[in-house]
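Support reply, case 0932

Customer input (verbatim):
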Amino acid sequence: MSLPYAIDAEQPLTASELDVLRGQYERELNQGHASTQTKFNYAWGLVKSKRREDMALGVDLLTEIYRSDPPRRRECLYYLSLGHYKMGNFEEAKRFNALLMEREPHNQQAQSLNALIEKGVAREGYIGMALMGGAAAVGGVLIAGLLRRGGRR
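Our regenerated output:
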């Protein structure tokens, strides 16, 4: 099975497409058990969503498949990594993608996703540094103000 590149996950399904997958999944659950393929299809549709709640449910379903169906682990690793990446859980995304790259070092989809994850980690680091720098500047201004005020007494 060929895995899509990470950019494919940025194109969410339409509401009606996701409803079809949800309906199939719920019908099978109501009959006692959803097949792994149906669960997987629904999880992938959820991971493609722009809604964080959908992505989180998709990751939960993929985690269930990963644990219960060893032959599906390879594709689950990729989609788990992708889901965590989209939610901004970069450490989890790195962990799952590293497991996939360990098994398949030449997997171009995993390499592509790894580059996106690294950019996300760097971006998060820059934002953190900017916030820390801003907090330090505000703290410095407050201390300077207190020192000036204390010297006037």
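We compared this against your earlier run and they match. Two observations from our side: Residues 66 and 73 are 5 Å apart (CA to CA). The chain has a mean pLDDT of 85. Please reopen the case if you see a mismatch on your end.
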